[in-house]
């Protein structure tokens, strides 16, 4: 495993460049009407590829990390199933067509995205000079801040819908609580929270969603 990490580490600059280009292209492609039909089906593909590339740079594959990865994916997916089917947790919403095929009215890729976001936020906040419980709170809060930028874009790009209603506060509270539970487990498990790609990946997430929000704002004027 060490040799594999060393091997992919040599290609970090290439991986970082390609990811950056992919996210920037996503902003442009999804905003241009002529290109949007070609880029929309690539959204779930990009989520999967982003996670795969991120995990190539993970440094500690002991069983505790594998446990967390599986737990985060399953928790993220099934809490969304619960949310969609009952209206609890996040409020009344439904997934649209933008994230691909669905199982129980939820795209399975959304579980992978919960792993990606919790992984990136957990890794970035692990550098803070705080006790573990404060790191978990900081990382969960960072995830909610990102979700604030995600929501308007997700609605406009047909990722999900709130049926014409404003995004409820319950959504952000639910995001924070689920994130906090996952990140408390993340910090409590004995594996290294190091990944040189995590900061860039999180930054690209912010660039992607903030960029779309800025464009939508300019279009509304």
UniProtKB/TrEMBL annotation:
Ranges that cross the membrane: 12-32, 38-58, 65-84, 137-160, 172-190, 197-218
Taxonomy, superkingdom: Bacteria
Its recorded name reads: Carotenoid biosynthesis protein
Q: What Pfam families does this protein map onto?
A: Caroten_synth
Protein keywords: Membrane, Transmembrane, Transmembrane helix
């Amino acid at each position: 495993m060490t040799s594999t990490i060393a091997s992919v580490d040599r290609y970090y600059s290439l991986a970082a460049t390609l990811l950056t280009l992919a996210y920037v292209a996503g902003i442009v492609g999804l905003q241009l009407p002529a290109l949007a039909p070609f880029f929309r089906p690539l959204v779930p593909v990009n989520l999967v590829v982003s996670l795969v590339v991120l995990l190539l740079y993970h440094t500690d594959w002991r069983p505790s990390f594998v446990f967390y990865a599986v737990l985060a994916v399953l928790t993220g997916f099934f809490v969304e199933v619960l949310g969609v089917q009952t209206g609890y947790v996040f409020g009344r919403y439904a997934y649209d067509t933008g994230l691909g095929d669905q199982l129980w009215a939820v795209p399975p890729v959304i579980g992978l995205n919960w792993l990606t976001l919790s992984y990136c936020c957990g890794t970035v906040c692990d550098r803070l000079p705080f006790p573990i419980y404060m790191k978990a709170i900081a990382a969960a809060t960072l995830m909610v801040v990102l979700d604030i930028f995600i929501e308007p874009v997700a609605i406009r790009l047909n990722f999900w819908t709130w049926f014409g209603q404003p995004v409820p506060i319950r959504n952000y509270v639910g995001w924070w609580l689920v994130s906090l539970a996952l990140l408390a487990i993340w910090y409590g498990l004995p594996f290294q929270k190091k990944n040189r790609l995590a900061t860039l990946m999180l930054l690209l997430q912010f660039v992607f969603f903030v960029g779309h929000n800025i464009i939508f704002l300019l279009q509304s004027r």
